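Objective 1b: paired records.
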Amino acid sequence: MHRSATSESIKMRQSWGKLRAILLRGLPVLLLACGSSTMAPSGNSAAGSYSPILWVTTGGSGQTSELQAGSTLLLNLNADGTTSGHLHIAASGSRPVFDADMAGTWVQTGTSIRISQSADTFIRNTSFEMSPDPVSGWDLAGDTTFASTHIQIILTPA
């Protein structure tokens, strides 16, 4: 029985030695793969399709949740620097329905996104700031005043 315990002890030491060697070789790779928990944007990393999860306007008639009012936005930031999509602003009070094509171009500088387009909308007057979205990439937040209306909007990957 003593012999069996000794052979078991040797096998355990050999197994531990193999495991230790694997861990020592794999640990640096694992640490490099994990990297930092904060993502840094680069190039055109904001490319993708976006729609609002928050969209509030404040003007002469008070504050309006544009999403609850029925307004919609689909904004595509294409990898080639072009934009596409559609903006629909629902009628509210004395404001009529407004629709616009989101065709244009976009540029990313650090964490800022600027959009150029021929349609006269708040989109082209807003600097969007990127923030990491833990599920799907980046959220874009904009805060601007357009035609005497304060607009706050957060776009998330669609």
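Objective 1b, second protein:
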Amino acid sequence: MWHPPHELPPLLGEAVHIWSVRLDINPAQVHRLGETLAEDERERAAAFRFAHLRARFVVTRAVVRQLLARYVGAGATPSSLRFRYGAFGKPSLIETHEDVPLSFNVSHSDELALIAVARGRDVGVDVEGVRAIANADGIAERYFCAPEREALRSSQDESKTTLFLTYWTRKEALLKATGDGLSVPLDRVDVSGVLGEQPQLVFVLDGSGAPRQLALVDLKPAGGYIGALAVEGSGWQLSCWRWPDSGDLT
């Protein structure tokens, strides 16, 4: 798991792929990747005050374009892809002319990004760097449901931090999969009973109040990071890959 493949693995049938991407690469690679971005992406990159944050944005967006272009095939290039955005910012591809459309989701924290890709089913992913959470109990009182708050109160020190971030990434992944983001209160989604080792079905209400069935699984993409993946439905098969540090697949 989490090894770079020799070539892009095919995304067939019920497959779900997730990629971890190291964002701190050398400036020459960042420059080369930046050439594939659209004008609005370049403008957003230029708005970052700090060079390392600008570079991380460029690498994330460029690798998303490289991955999706390869999955789309049929002559698609990274720079030719066009995106639309949902009411709460979830991106999707337009004009791919595929019978079963690609869906994808992206999250990044510090120097790591995760990109989830599937066909014909919604996906949501979240990743957080492990760090001390100031006022974790206070945040939990506002955003977590009762069983989650009780579990956090019973935890101490490092275990509390890990549990807090585990709950947070699970909730974010679920809400990103439905496309509702933080428009749905986080305390409406109870993730305290998820075991994490295998995909587990969770029923959530989306922003319209309609029930959605999603499978949730915890991720350990790299040391010092906690993640979660939510996928619509059941019966899918997960493969985890690491994007090459060179910035491209051979």
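The first helix runs from residue 27 to 34. The radius of gyration is 18 Å.
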